[in-house]
Amino acid sequence: MNGGMLRTIHGPADLHALDATQLPALCEEIRRTLVDYGHRHGGHIGSNLGMIEATVALHRVFDSPRDRIVFDVSHQSYVHKMLTGRADAYLDPALADTVTGFTNPDESEHDQFVLGHTGTSISLACGLAKMRDMAGGHEHVIAVIGDGSLSSAIAFEGLNNAAAQGGNLIIVVNDNEMSIAEDQGGMYASLARLRASGGTAEPNLFTAFGLDYRYVEDGNDVTALVAAFTEVRDTDHPVVVHIHTCKGLGLPASDDIAQPVDESVATSGRCEANHWINPDSAAHRPLGARKYYGQLAMAQLESRFDHEPGLVVISPATPGSNGITRAFRDRAGKHYVDTGITEEHAVAFASGIARAGGRPVLATSATFFQRTFDQLQQELSLNHTPATLLDFGGGLSGSDNTHSGAFDIAMFGNIPGLTCLAPTSQTMFLDMLAWSTSSANQGPVVIRVPGDTILNAERTGLLPCDRKQTVAQPVTAASQPVSDTPSTISDDQPWSRYHIVHAGSRVAILALGNELPLGLRVITTLANHTADGTNASVHGSSELAIDATLIDPQQFSTLDATTLASLAERHELVVTLEDGQLEGGWGEKVTAWYANHCDPTIAALRVLNFGATKEFTDRVPLTELNERYGLTVDQIIARIRENLAN
Amino acid sequence: MNGGMLRTIHGPADLHALDATQLPALCEEIRRTLVDYGHRHGGHIGSNLGMIEATVALHRVFDSPRDRIVFDVSHQSYVHKMLTGRADAYLDPALADTVTGFTNPDESEHDQFVLGHTGTSISLACGLAKMRDMAGGHEHVIAVIGDGSLSSAIAFEGLNNAAAQGGNLIIVVNDNEMSIAEDQGGMYASLARLRASGGTAEPNLFTAFGLDYRYVEDGNDVTALVAAFTEVRDTDHPVVVHIHTCKGLGLPASDDIAQPVDESVATSGRCEANHWINPDSAAHRPLGARKYYGQLAMAQLESRFDHEPGLVVISPATPGSNGITRAFRDRAGKHYVDTGITEEHAVAFASGIARAGGRPVLATSATFFQRTFDQLQQELSLNHTPATLLDFGGGLSGSDNTHSGAFDIAMFGNIPGLTCLAPTSQTMFLDMLAWSTSSANQGPVVIRVPGDTILNAERTGLLPCDRKQTVAQPVTAASQPVSDTPSTISDDQPWSRYHIVHAGSRVAILALGNELPLGLRVITTLANHTADGTNASVHGSSELAIDATLIDPQQFSTLDATTLASLAERHELVVTLEDGQLEGGWGEKVTAWYANHCDPTIAALRVLNFGATKEFTDRVPLTELNERYGLTVDQIIARIRENLAN
């Protein structure tokens, strides 16, 4: 039976009370529990399987929460959660949602921080230790960081400062010989030599930073780990305990759940497969937008590799999530670079390639691009180098609070000189990629990869299919039925002008990126209102059909002043829709543009903005978020009716 | 005579043509030129004096611009500029403004990038080298990075990736044994051992990253450097050339220009004094706002150190610029931590201290906080840890394009859960600091340190002196004359409610932070218009006096809905003023708030926004920027009149 011993562990005290000889059995029980949980629920099973013994040993030797353990990224904290009163969440399928996939102080006093981005644990632990020393405390402070995380910028800053700070601080380096995909970088040869030599080889990266050092070869031997942690427990100076673990230990290579859902991903390595496992229920589902559009992008680029030496795809460690399959990477050769978990380097690296004449394409998640804010501004935009950034996972979703895509428009859209494109179809996406990586483009471009709302609309045929545009034939003023006014903005890229999907009157819906399908549903509903007896009777006689205009802005870096001004002719109300934070986002720029216009007719146009509140959300389903933010057909139409009535 | 030989150098070819024996004399001539230039013009003289011989040797051995030299931060590129056709800028006082203090491709084909932030040179060079290898080129790529810059996060990512990449890449580590202030961190002991051992000591940080390594003890011996660079010139793999130089070589310790202008800064060390030298003409001027308010802040904190062990001041390497004097640091002891150039670590470190119960205060420039965007969001705001950030140098200024403060409001103000305060007086600033570091505050706070417009207004008595507020007595609805409506927002901090400086009618000026003095001038001019015969006659009879309202928002993280709504009663026009980028900034939020209001009376209120265009600016004088952006009394009043007339 699973969970026999585990169910008796309600906190570290129960673990301390066990006989040492019981620990291996407890670890095996946890291992079985994790594998079952992975089948049902998915998650970062691989890293947790590797960390079972180390986590048991940490809680055996130290006294949490008095002693403070900081898990880097914290996706490997499942075992920690099991040992600190939350085992039921992993044993009982009905309780799975009672815990997040990351540490969270709101969930338990044993969780020091909410963490989901890599490399910060050492710096955070330095802060905890500093305060302890200022207050004259005696608790122990432990940072647990993987070899993959170790390649991220801030981790090095932490290593460098830890030694200078002094005092009790234990840095457990969980070396499982892999990052999300393979480890990348020169230091991994050093780590390999340390492993091969039992921790004695020079040069030693950790001692080079001034840190004391211990090595534990069998990082899945709980007895050895207890001994090692006990030895360093009361150290009066920072010490690295380098433990060699096996990611995914206990998960057969042939286990179905270790197979990627995406069949085009080769199954030779356990790397990505063991990093994040999809639940069994996800098998055989069609690809989601990230992988679908990502694979299309890679296919387009790959077809050009032979003739364009400067076309280089850069992925800071998370290729699989973005459709950069192992098969593609193998074929791409020198045209593909995994820089490891190093978003900042990746952006500067891309800028360097572009400065020398290349056309780099850097792909990662919206939430991870946040780490590169300064490089986006300084190395890329200020230098106006033609790199293309593929922004995956931008927009609202039911993600946890550490991986939200709600903030990308407000981040990218306010950087001078950065062209920000928001394609609303596969064709437009690939056209934009072809243009941004061509010699026609002379500056940095971010393309917000379409999300599932677009993919679903394309699959169901919801979106009109006449929206194809080619780079050779950008939208021109003449093709836009609403206005004959010539463009007053410089057409520095083919999507500078907004695309009028449907020209109507009274109300203009400007639906950015992923919200275009919502905009289409809104104008369809408005147009059909009189034909809909129920609606007409509920809302009364004012509920006349409205033939509203629908506009696809296609980008969020500049405003199309010509189109915006032209709307004043036949419209009373402009509505902006965006699947991101309103504050600092795109719609507010539209509102301010009208408000500040010198022509009183144009300035008088009412504007309503729909988007997300400035807040963090944690695993709130998208439908609930849309309801909360008024991003539903009913709520949008209700606000439109209210404002037209006035 | 200065510049005899230097004037004959119009590019690297002229340097190549010199006899090797002439190089030391050229170096001495450059040294004299730099010292004279520093007296007249100021600048990063110390680092350039240390880099004279290395720069001459680089241009002697390599063939720029075919070979690409990337100067990290690029403040040490003066000698490079002299050798690449720009010597006149340093020799002729009238031509000093023809060059920036940093490299810039618009200035010369020998400058690879615009750079002003640390640590990115290796990553950029990796990109240049990658593209060379993709294209089958044979040019050499060189990154030049100081030991101080080496502590910044991205530099480590670069080191780690350089070795993995392979190919010709030369990383010159300019080790002058100091950062902007002292070097900080465990790796500097390793560097010291390398210096002491002639480059042979283990552990070697560079070889630990997988890089080849050379050491040059006398980094100011041009002959030795030419030999070292020649030896590695055609390397087929990345190699570090570690050169030991002397910052400020040739600048007597007793030289007047090495003395800090601020008399309260001790003069014992050459560190800050030699980092940035003020021109002689700056001597004996009163303190600017950064140092003035910074010193006040430190004095307040210092008075509490004895009783508050958790009060810790953190400076990532630039204490002197922000009034954190050497004398203060010496007295502060453990209450002060210089983390080196590690902004990201500094923010996570602060969050750790705060989580453990401390009240950390992190001080740096607006432009450098950009590097911490992800830590601000994840480690700080998502974790809601009560750290205080002192944001120095925020706002418009005549700075170069790599150090602009125009983007901070748009960055900080859009992060959920981060309280953003914009004090407009010394008293308010210190009250805010006292509150944010007290137990009354439970979350992260950024305080935008007042700029020179505020300091000048305080010195000249322009601002009304009844604006003092204390933490114990926050602004309440009852104290606000415009509206009796009770506050509908939660007063989560004493400055949530806007402060009504003057209650008038028709026009309400909301002047954020540093623009409050401008707002005061606007309402004064509007009020005096009829008394001013010239104005009345010029503008005609419509130019009646207006008793406009002036509001000090005090913060830019939330909107005071009560006050904003109340303005609809007696006002036709709301005007926002901010000294930062409009797009994504604060005023657009005010505009959108009104536009989206459900009460048609409130929604009908016109709003005009004044602030900066989304653009990079390079050494444009502030008065010119204000003129460009309409941030002058005349332009603001003209737009107000236009819109009232409508």
TrEMBL record, chains A, B:
It comes from the Bacteria. GO terms for biological process: isopentenyl diphosphate biosynthetic process, methylerythritol 4-phosphate pathway; terpenoid biosynthetic process; thiamine biosynthetic process. GO terms for cellular component: cytosol. Pathway: Metabolic intermediate biosynthesis; 1-deoxy-D-xylulose 5-phosphate biosynthesis; 1-deoxy-D-xylulose 5-phosphate from D-glyceraldehyde 3-phosphate and pyruvate: step 1/1. Gene3D superfamilies: 3.40.50.920, 3.40.50.970. Keywords: Isoprene biosynthesis, Magnesium, Metal-binding, Thiamine biosynthesis, Thiamine pyrophosphate, Transferase. It is an enzyme of class 2 (transferase). GO terms for molecular function: 1-deoxy-D-xylulose-5-phosphate synthase activity; magnesium ion binding. Its EC number is 2.2.1.7. The keyword Magnesium applies. Its cofactor is Mg(2+); thiamine diphosphate. SUPFAM superfamilies: Thiamin diphosphate-binding fold (THDP-binding) (SSF52518), TK C-terminal domain-like (SSF52922). Residues 291-457 form the Transketolase-like pyrimidine-binding domain. The keyword Metal-binding applies. Homodimer. Belongs to the transketolase family. DXPS subfamily. PANTHER family: 1-D-DEOXYXYLULOSE 5-PHOSPHATE SYNTHASE-RELATED, 1-DEOXY-D-XYLULOSE-5-PHOSPHATE SYNTHASE. This is 1-deoxy-D-xylulose-5-phosphate synthase. It comes from Bifidobacterium hapali.
